[in-house]
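ugh ok fine here u go
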Amino acid sequence: MDAKEVARPCASLSLVDEENAATWLGDDLWNVVDKKLGLRLVGKVWTNKHVNREAFRATIPKIWWTMQEVQVEVIQENIFVFHFKKRDDRQRVLTGGPWGFDRGLLVLEEPVGSGDLNRGVV
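structure:
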């Protein structure tokens, strides 16, 4: 099979509806994305030194005393994403601060959409 034979059936495929507007994947997919973002927080530890990532990942969930486990994902130096299993835990952490770690202030923010986390974290 050559490239023209493969391309011919694909030529009729389109992501455009009858009015020639791009078709999105659907509200159901956006609801899933909103739900997942709704269970996350992005945080940055404001300090002049590098945070011990493993100590941070082990300590912060214990300080927060959440009802269910919180996973801490390291994004880059002093920037983390927190994955909650319950909205109540997330909301309590977000509003219960200020939080700190090793003499640095932990600034938390709700993620919105996609993009560069460096630009979104103060």
